[in-house]
Amino acid sequence: MNRVRSIFLSDIHLGTRACQIDRLLAFLKQYDAEYLFLVGDIIDFWAMGRRGVYWSAAMNTFVQKVLKRARQGVKVIFVPGNHDEALRDYVDNTFGNIRLHGNYEHVAADGRRYLVLHGDEFDVVTKYHKWLAVLGDHGYAFLVRVNVLLSALRRRFGIAGYWSLAGYAKRKVKTAVNFICDFEESVARSVKARGLDGAICGHVHAAAIRQVDGITYINCGDWVDSCSAVVEHLDGRMELIHWTAAQPETTSDEDESEAHPVPPSTDAPAGARERETA
To answer: How many angstroms separate the CA atoms of 36 and 43, rounded?
Structure first.
């Protein structure tokens, strides 16, 4: 068990077949923290309302693990997103030691202040054209289903590692790339105006740690495509972890001028493949 100060998870999409819940449980077996942040779209009410509820035993296990950590004194903070927006009616309330917030100002161990938010308020499509967002969600769900078939074929032919068709499309389609860049800049401008040092968000399923207009922009990614999370170490250093079955490999973001490289470790968890720090 690796002890860190904070764990940030977003876009888990419980209640869908696309959720990589087994990978998430494997990640949580390796990490324990004082704070656990659930940064929106944890439960996918959109998908459950349209396609029916898919709820596995592993999803129950995840919920029980979160509740158990809350009972044991871990500060669990839930910031609802657009897919679980029904929970926004209950912000500023506590349920089973889990506190709901519209957004949350987190002070890291090194004194840097981060705004924790889901981020959908900076997505003009979701905010003003929900029907188009739902249509896009259908297309995304189709890519995820195709990816399940591709993953089965990769396993059959002995091709190692996890590859996401939806993630590949986001990286290659110019419109998607521009949308993500605009999203990052909008989040950074808002946080800068509030006098904070950085933002920790989700929503766009594009994991990143980078400097945007002098602000540390951190996106937790998701547990559908990238299987990624952010952890805050005991010294306040933020690290982005892509959880795969590969051996650990340390990388730093070239845009992060204050990045602290992660030293090699012989006891690093086998699932932590790619790391970025801030």
So the answer is: 16
